[in-house]
Amino acid sequence: MDTTQIKIFPWSQNTPTPEVEAFLQRPAFDERAEAAAAACLADIRARGLPAVLDACRTFDQADLTPETIRVTEAELDAAEAACDESVKRAIHQAAERVEAFAKAGLRPDWTIPTPHGGRLGERYHPMDRVGMYIPGGTAPLASTSIMTVVLAKAAGVKEIVACTPSRGGLTVSAPLLYALRVAGATEIYRVGGIQSIGMMAYGAGIAPVQLIAGPGNAFVTAAKRQVYGAVAIDQVAGPSEICVLADQAGNAEWIAADLLSQAEHGSGHEKSFLVTDSAAFAEEVKAAVLRQTETRNRKAIIERMMENGGMLFAVVPDLKTDGVLLCNRFAAEHLELQVSDADAILPLINCAGAVFVGYWTPESAGDFVAGPSHVLPTGGAARMFSGLTAETFRRRSSFVEFSKEDLAETREAIETFGTLEGLDAHAYAATVRFQ
After folding, report:
1. Are 414 and 252 in contact (CB under 8 A)?
2. Is 334 a catalytic residue?
3. Which of 265, 269, 334, 374 is catalytic?
């Protein structure tokens, strides 16, 4: 491998290196994907399920019919029988841990009293029907079944639709199907890509959903963005990424493995970013990355990502100031704190989808089994979006219950605002109650 594919640059807030600054910039949208999504979604709105089936033939080489589009219970039974016991144990362990974390994060209904005997508060209600996109192209992500469906079930959603592609026929990964069953999916369709988003959003051959969640490639992301408004979405996410903040006490081999964990996803546009305070240590990690790449099953995919400039190392003068600032500016999907004083640095991090604290916490623990969902904002979106939680699948309603005395106390303010804004009917709605 060309060793120059991994660049090492100095960086500080006083002298920001142009190459590092450029690495921080990730395009939010893919214009080619946006155009393809617009055309496919328009066709689905116009023709419904036949357009979905045509898209499956075109994009996935899957010749589906209205009768074969849905995965049957018999197929789920067969998938369960095909899974090794070790696979089943892993799926159940992940589901149990994710469910416990999801339920712990659910907000309770709450109320506070008004000054004169009334009540104010909020109530939470599960959505009725939601849809999940489970990637199955470059890798069938059984873990995503857990990291999405379990959260919706924990929130109390009764109807959970899952879509995942089949390739060149009817086959879908057995572990993925088993994970969907364990997680609690109530309907599973062997449809992927843009067409699955359109099918769920517009009700093409199925009942429409109220929200669509889950990660996907640039085309799925573009489709989710364009159906927003017809349905809710969890977030707009792009290629996977990882940032590691590391000191010289870290293990170069461990850090190299963590950087490669996101490089192997397959789009070629993943980002792996090391921030350290030692140029010598950065060279150690680089050497470890190059060695490990040679032994990885997805070597070609990793090398393509590196050829696209997806891996870069920055050497900063101080981790707690320049290093933390750089990490917050990158706003990574995954941020590892591979530093001896991780507990002191953690409170300084305010822009990251998920933070992995300490030497013994690889990002892959979060991808598969730790508890929080691995569906996280990418491309710097952690500056304004958060990861998927069970709360995503609930509606929140505030309520107000005034007593006569509460209304009397606020009547003048209501009438003033109504007059100020030219809305006299608003004002009169308070006035009339005292006439």
Report:
1. no
2. yes
3. 334
